[in-house]
Amino acid sequence: MEWRPAEVNENRNYKIPDRWLHLYYYEALNILFRFENALRLFVYVVLKREFGKDWDIAALGDGITIRTETKKRIHQAREHGYLGYSVSSPMLFLNSGELTQIITSDGYWKHFAPFFRATKAIVLTKLQEIGTVRNSLAHFRPIKQDDVDLIKQNSKHLLIGIEDCLVQLTSITDVVPTNSEDPWYKELKTIGNEHLKTDLLCSRDQRWIRVQLVYKIPVLRKSRPTKYPNFKVGTLRTDQILPLFPAVRETCIYLSESTVHPSMGDDLEVKAGKSISMVFSKSTLESSLAAIADALKAIALKVAAETELIQQDTLARGEIVEAKNISAALRDGTSGSQYWTFNTESLDTPLAEIEEVEYWGQRWHFTTDFISSTSHYPWMPSSVSEDEVPF
User: Beta strand 219-222 with 230-236: parallel, antiparallel or unpaired?
Assistant: First the structure.
């Protein structure tokens, strides 16, 4: 047998062998993949907001919970861990039928209903119709072009509110006004020191608060002046925040970090900061303010103490601060200009290193069209598509 591959030319035009499946099969796969993963993300967000640390004891029926069932599935997957990517989020081990069951169950529907513009009966019917096409494709039964049109239409009807929820949740960029009288703002705004500062931002709909911790990266050692200097710098160990500070893990919706983008001064001094964002439901932040504030204050104190430690001894390592190496290169630009580029990959925290479902990896945000165009999902250690190139 001959398995002919697709071909791509230098202009990114693809040639698909005629013997491959009809193109609409791949269109259906793309829609269903994105639909199901958006649903997973949405269900997690709602359950975590409503039930906090006990979000995963949501029932799947017959005494089975998300926690008990997905533990078994994760264990089974690891028996063949050499296949595919290693993932640990329980949400990635739930299928669309189980997600539908959770959303439309008598016990949980009241929490999901505000995000749908239809009755439970209609939502259930549309989810079941999508599930039928999904199962046909998953079990390699033939599908029709009309089936693709159906899942497109049903997805649009069902995901309007979900899209808005996910966009609001991942695009929190509005700075909370400095004259805010909210008790949580007054309590949190002063947390910080010379090494760490706290920024407070809110979503447009005021439902979500992003607490951004910005670490001023210290330069511990640098090489002699050259076009390719190396630096030893301090950085935050993002992988330690959730296990060390359970009040954050139990109350936040997710934690993410931003890629470090240094700048080079005329004196060849590197300036950079590493940002870690914790997103909370505003209602949770208000009800658990004391515990969250205490955790953030403890983080700030620990960061200060451990930064001073590695400044005195670059071979030392704290629980939340450590030393890493980065490099820079002076490049030739146009018209005789020059500019610096940096390699800071050592400062990034791979998704695979953190098992907590609250860690979502690198921070990103969308203003629209999250569901049908994102190239990265939380809990997945690789991209699922190319980033879309604007026309």
Answer: antiparallel
d(Cα 255, Cα 322) in Å, to the nearest integer?
19
The rounded distance, in Å, linking the Cα atoms of 23 and 382 is 24
CA distance 281 to 51: 12
**Which residue type, as a one-letter code, is found at position 21?**
L
Range of the domain at 37: 18-170
Contact criterion met (CB below 8 Å) for 173 and 201: yes
Q: 343-366 burial, b for 16+ CB within 10 Å, e for fewer?
A: ebeebbbebeebbebbbbbebbee
- Local confidence pLDDT in tens for the 391 residues of the chain: 888 888 988 888 888 898 999 999 999 999 999 999 999 999 999 999 999 999 999 999 888 999 999 999 988 888 887 887 888 899 999 999 999 999 999 999 999 999 999 999 999 999 999 999 999 999 999 999 999 999 999 999 999 999 999 999 999 999 999 999 999 999 999 999 999 999 999 999 999 999 999 999 999 998 887 889 999 999 999 999 999 999 999 999 999 999 899 999 877 889 999 999 999 999 999 999 999 999 999 999 999 999 999 999 989 999 999 999 999 999 998 888 889 999 999 999 887 778 899 999 888 765 677 888 888 889 988 888 887 654 4
37 within a domain of the structure (yes/no): yes
Q: Do residue 60 and residue 198 come from a single domain?
A: no
- Per the CB < 8 A criterion, the answer to whether 309 and 317 are in contact is no
Last residue of a domain, one of 125, 144, 170: 170
Q: Are residues 99 and 205 in the same domain?
A: no
Q: What are phi and psi of 226, to 5 degrees?
A: -160, 170
Closest to 27 in 3D by CA, of 152, 155, 162: 152
Task: Answer yes or no: do 155 and 240 share one domain.
Answer: no
b/e map 136-172, b = 16+ CB within 10 Å: ebeeeeebeeebbebbbebbeebbebbbebbbbbbbb
